Amino acid sequence: MGKRWSGVFPAMTTQFREDQSLDAASTGRHIEAMVASGVGGVVVCGSLGENQAMEPGEKVEVVRTAVRAAAGKVPVVAGIAETSTAKAVRAARDFAEVGAAGFMIMPPMVYRPDADEADAFFRKVASATDLPWMLYNNPIAYTVDVTPARLVEFADVRNLVAVKESSADPRRIVEIRLLLGDRFALFAGVDDLIVESSIHGIDGWVAGSGIAFPAENQRLWDLLKAGAWDEARALYRWFSPLMKLDTYPKFVQYIKLMVQEAGLGAEWVREPRRPLVGEERERILAVIRRGIENRPGA
Predict the structure, then answer these.
(1) pLDDT tens for each residue of 3-16
(2) Rounded to a whole number, what is the largest CA-CA distance in the chain?
(3) How would you classify residue 39: left for phi > 0, otherwise alpha for psi between -120 and 50, otherwise beta?
(4) What is the rounded CA–CA span in Å between residue 104 and residue 11?
(5) Phi and psi of 11, rounded to 5°?
């Protein structure tokens, strides 16, 4: 299955123009900046990438753009978030054709499957190609909860290589290790739990807020992996208010605005999302600008 996935795998935004059309060139430039910062891989077409607001052909174009921008330096992991098993299988095959290194598979969208249905969905999509994939466990957002005990049942799925654990309970990392050892690479999926997750021993981090501050994001990861806790805590205290912007329903708008303020992209989103206005915009901008003003080394 190739090299074990590890390190920072930023969840990239999909860049749009003000008229909501896809801006592949801007998307590619942002990915190039992330690769230059030292990340271990990139994730496109995830939740932050507004997967469900795009047409199938647009998703393929984003993956193709990412593969081109990554230039073979890091794996491109394509998010799969579909309403049916057939659509998810088709997406996996389409993404593989344009060079995706693997997938991050979310449970079925809209319909709330029971555990057995979710199991069957993950297995069928996984079997669509031989490429490695990451199971995205986010019971808060997607209702499906692949608990550590349930995860044991996936140990036989050969190309399941990683888990993005976003249950907001870092204790699960320990539970998974006790049950499965190092069978899966474990990735933290909640930005403002990265310190707690690192203490328990993780392989990587699917980072959201850090796409606006790639150098600091990578620095924090490096400090955590080195066990340089005092330095890591100091950097995290600066980062924490920015990271919390990844934990709200409008996290896409918040992070895109942060990316824009950092000079790495634009805030435009695709409807039904709309750009921030009024008091909410000013409040979020104040958090972002305070972070930029106090940026380490600024």
Answers:
(1) 999 999 999 999 99
(2) 51
(3) beta
(4) 10
(5) -85, 110
